[in-house]
C-alpha cells in the first residue's frame, strides 16, 4: 500500500470518507475498550473513537497522513505500521478500520487478517468497512473504455470482494463472522469538478507510464461520459458500494 497521499487535499475535500465512518463506530459492543484504528489516515476517526470514550490508537503506513494526524490531534497516539506487515506488543479489544482494505491486493489480504487476529485479545471485535463488490463500477467501467480507446489496458487497482469471498478469508484467518452487509451508497462529492478531482486523488496506479496529456484526455472523456449518470443538479456523486463486517476472535 505504498501510496503517496496529498494529505491536505484529502482532509479538506474528501471529509465524507470519515464522516460515514461514524456509524461504523456504533457497531462496537461495549464501552471504554482499547481500539486499534488500522489505516487511520488523518486521524479523524481515531479522534471520534476517543470522543466516544474508547482508548484508541491510530496506525497508518503513510507518513504524510500521520504527520497531519499528529498535528491535528497532538493529544492522541499515532503509530507507523503497514496493515500487511504490522505487529503489536499490546493486544486490543477492538481492531477498527474504515475505507482501507480495498487498497490491499487480494493476495496480501490473508497476511493483513492474520496480523489483525494476532493484535486482538481473545473475544476481541474486528469491525471494518471497505469497498465491496460492484464498488465504483460505473467509474472504473468508463475509465476502462477510455483506456481501451487509447490502445491501453486498464488494470483495476482495487480489491472489492463479495460477502462470501471475504467471509471465507475471515474464517480462514480464524475469525467468526457475526455480521456482514453489502450496500449501495451513492455519495456526493465536493465541488463542481467533484468526479474529476476524485479520480485524480484516488486512481493513480493505472496511469503509471501514461503520458500526462493522454491521462488528462482519458479522465476528461470518462467524466464527460459519466455526466448523465453521476451528476445530478450540478452535484457529482461516486457510485460507492460498501462492505461492512463485524467478526470476532473466538
Ligand atoms: C472507497 O472508499 O470505496 C474507495 C475510495 C477511493 C478509492 C477506491 C475506493
Oligomer: single chain
User: What general outline do the C-alpha atoms trace?
Assistant: globular
Which H/E pattern describes the elements? Answer: HHHEHEHEEHEHHEHHEE
Instruction: Determine Rg (CA atoms, Å).
Output: 18 Å
What small molecules accompany the polymer chains? benzoic acid
User: What is the strand tally?
Assistant: 8
Uncertain runs with pLDDT below 50, 5 residues or more? Answer: none
Write the CATH architecture name of the domain at 7-135 and 158-188 and 240-248.
3-Layer(aba) Sandwich
Largest sheet features: 8 strands, mixed
So, the CATH homologous superfamily of the domain at 7-135 and 158-188 and 240-248? Answer: Vaccinia Virus protein VP39
Query: How large is the count of helical segments?
Result: 10
CATH class of the domain at 7-135 and 158-188 and 240-248: Alpha Beta
- What is the structural class? alpha/beta
Description:
This protein has helices at residues 7-13, 16-19, 22-25, 44-51, 63-72, 109-119, 137-149, 163-172, 194-202, 212-230, and strands at residues 34-38, 55-60, 77-80, 92-98, 120-131, 176-188, 231-232, 235-248. The chain contains ten helices and eight strands. With 250 residues, the chain is of the alpha/beta class. The protein has a domain at 7-135 and 158-188 and 240-248: 3-Layer(aba) Sandwich (Rossmann fold). Helix content is 38%, strand content 25%. It binds benzoic acid (BEZ). Residues 99, 102, 131, 135, 158, 202, 240 line the site of benzoic acid (BEZ).
Main attributes of the structure:
alpha/beta, 250 residues, eight-stranded mixed sheet, binds benzoic acid, 8 strands
Amino acid at each position: 500500500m505504498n501510496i503517496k497521499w496529498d494529505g491536505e487535499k484529502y482532509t479538506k475535500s474528501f471529509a465524507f470518507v470519515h464522516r460515514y465512518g461514524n456509524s461504523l463506530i456504533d457497531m462496537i459492543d461495549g464501552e471504554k475498550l482499547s481500539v486499534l484504528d488500522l489505516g487511520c489516515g488523518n486521524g479523524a476517526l481515531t479522534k471520534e473513537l476517543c470522543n466516544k470514550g474508547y482508548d484508541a490508537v491510530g496506525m497508518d503506513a503513510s507518513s504524510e497522513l500521520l504527520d497531519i494526524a499528529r498535528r491535528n490531534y497532538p493529544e492522541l497516539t499515532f503509530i507507523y505500521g503497514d496493515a500487511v506487515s504490522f505487529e503489536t506488543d499490546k493486544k486490543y479489544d477492538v481492531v477498527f478500520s474504515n475505507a482501507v482494505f480495498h487498497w490491499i491486493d487480494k493476495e496480501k489480504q490473508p497476511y493483513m487478517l492474520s496480523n489483525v487476529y494476532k493484535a486482538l485479545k481473545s473475544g476481541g471485535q474486528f469491525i471494518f468497512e471497505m469497498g465491496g463488490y460492484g464498488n465504483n463500477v460505473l467509474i472504473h467501467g468508463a475509465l476502462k473504455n477510455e483506456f481501451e480507446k487509447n490502445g491501453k489496458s486498464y488494470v483495476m487497482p482495487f480489491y472489492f470482494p463479495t460477502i462470501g469471498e471475504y467471509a471465507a478469508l475471515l474464517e480462514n484467518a480464524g475469525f467468526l463472522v457475526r455480521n456482514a452487509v453489502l450496500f449501495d451508497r451513492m455519495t456526493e462529492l465536493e465541488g463542481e469538478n467533484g468526479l474529476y478531482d476524485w479520480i485524480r486523488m484516488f486512481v493513480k496506479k493505472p496511469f503509471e507510464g501514461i503520458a500526462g496529456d493522454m491521462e488528462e484526455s482519458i479522465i476528461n472523456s470518462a467524466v464527460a461520459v459519466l455526466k448523465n449518470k453521476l451528476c445530478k443538479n450540478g452535484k457529482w456523486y461516486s457510485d460507492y458500494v460498501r462492505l461492512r463486517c463485524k467478526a470476532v476472535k473466538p
